[in-house]
Design goal:
Blueprint (H helix, E strand, L loop, with lengths): L2 H38 L9 H14 L1 H22 L4 H4 L7 H23 L5 H14 L4 H28 L5 H14 L4 H21 L2 H18 L7 H23 L26 H5 L5
Helix pairs in contact: 1-3, 1-7, 3-7, 5-9, 5-10, 5-11, 7-8, 7-9, 7-10, 8-9, 9-10
Length: 305
C-alpha cells in the first residue's frame, strides 16, 4: 500500500468514526427533545411567561433526567442492532464481543477501580478555574438526580455499554483498520472525551479512553473495556459516599492505585497475563487488519454509508 492509499484508507475510516459519533450524539439529542416535548406540552397551560417556561423546562428535565437517559440508551442500542441487522451483520461480531479468561474478568474490573481512585483524587488537587469546577459540579449534580436505582442502571450499566459499543467497538476498531494502536487510541479517546461536553470530564475520560482502548485490544474483546468502564463508573459513584479524610490519606490512596495500575498494565502489555481468548496468530483480531484500498474487503466494509 502506497502513501496515497494509506491516507485514503485513514480518511475513510476517520469519516466512519465521525459518522458513528454523530449518530451517537444525534440520537441522544433527538430522543431528549422528543421526550421533553411529550412531557412539557401537557403542562404548557400553567406557564404564562418566559420565566415560568424556563422554570417548567428545568423542573421537568431534572425530575425526569434518569428516565430520559434510560430511554436514550435503549434507543441507541436498538438503533445499532437494527442498523447492522439490515446490513446482514452481527453487532456482537462487528464489535468483537468475545469471552475473557478468568484473570481477564478480574483484572479489567480491578483496573477500573484503581484508575478511578487515582484519577479522581489527582484531578481534585489540580488548581482549576472556579468556573470549570462549578460547571463540573453542576454536571455531576444533574447526573445524580432522580431515583438511586435508576442512577445505578445508567451510570454503571447502560452508560458504559453504549459508550463502549460506540467508542471502542465501532470507532476505535474502524480506525485500527487504517492506523496503528496509538493514533487510533488517541483519536477515539479524544472523541470520547469531547462527547462528555465538560472540561474536567473530557480530561479524565480522555485518559480513561486510552486505557479502555488498550484493554479492548489486549483482551481481543469489547468485554475487556466494558467491564473496566463499569467498574470505573461504579467506583466513581461510590466515591461520593466516602467520609472526609486527611489530604495525605487521599494522596497515599492515589499513589498506591497508580502504582498498582502501572504494574498490572506492564504485566498485560508484556503478555505475562492474558486477558482474553484471543484468535490464533493466523487469524488476527479484526480490529487490527488494515484495509487494502480497492480490495474486496474494502467494498464489504461499508459499515455506515
Amino acid at each position: 500500500m502506497n502513501a496515497t492509499d494509506t491516507k485514503a484508507g485513514f480518511g475513510r475510516q476517520l469519516g466512519k468514526a465521525f459518522l458513528y459519533l454523530l449518530a451517537f450524539l444525534g440520537l441522544q439529542l433527538l430522543v431528549a427533545v422528543v421526550l421533553m416535548i411529550v412531557l412539557i406540552v401537557p403542562k404548557l397551560g400553567s406557564a404564562g411567561d418566559p420565566e415560568q417556561m424556563t422554570k417548567l423546562f428545568t423542573e421537568t428535565l431534572l425530575s425526569n433526567y434518569q428516565l430520559i437517559l434510560v430511554l436514550t440508551y435503549c434507543v441507541e442500542v436498538l438503533f445499532f442492532l437494527a442498523f447492522f441487522a439490515l446490513r446482514k451483520k452481527n453487532l456482537a461480531e462487528e464489535t468483537s464481543v468475545r469471552a475473557l479468561t478468568a484473570p481477564g474478568y478480574c483484572l479489567t474490573r480491578l483496573l477500573g477501580l484503581l484508575s478511578c481512585v487515582a484519577l479522581t483524587i489527582l484531578l481534585s488537587f489540580l488548581p482549576l478555574p472556579q468556573g470549570i469546577t462549578e460547571d463540573y459540579s453542576d454536571s455531576i449534580s444533574t447526573l445524580l438526580t432522580g431515583p438511586v436505582w435508576l442512577q445505578l442502571i445508567n451510570v454503571i450499566v447502560l452508560g458504559p455499554l453504549v459508550e463502549e459499543l460506540v467508542f471502542r467497538g465501532l470507532i476505535h476498531s474502524r480506525l485500527r483498520k487504517a492506523v496503528s494502536f496509538w493514533p487510533a487510541a488517541l483519536i477515539s479517546a479524544a472523541l470520547f472525551g469531547l462527547a462528555h461536553l465538560n472540561a474536567i470530564q473530557s480530561v479524565y475520560t480522555f485518559i480513561l479512553g486510552i486505557l479502555l482502548a488498550f484493554l479492548f485490544e489486549k483482551s481481543g474483546s469489547l468485554l475487556g473495556s466494558l467491564l473496566c468502564h463499569m467498574a470505573f463508573n461504579g467506583t466513581s459513584f461510590l466515591f461520593g459516599f466516602l467520609p472526609e479524610m486527611p489530604v495525605p490519606v487521599y494522596l497515599l490512596m492515589a499513589l498506591a492505585a497508580a502504582v498498582l495500575t502501572a504494574v498490572i498494565l506492564v504485566r498485560v502489555s508484556r503478555g505475562w497475563v492474558i486477558l482474553g481468548d484471543r484468535l490464533p496468530a493466523s487469524e488476527p483480531h479484526p480490529a487490527t487488519v488494515p484495509v487494502q484500498i480497492g480490495s474486496d474487503k474494502e467494498d464489504d466494509d461499508d459499515d455506515l454509508i
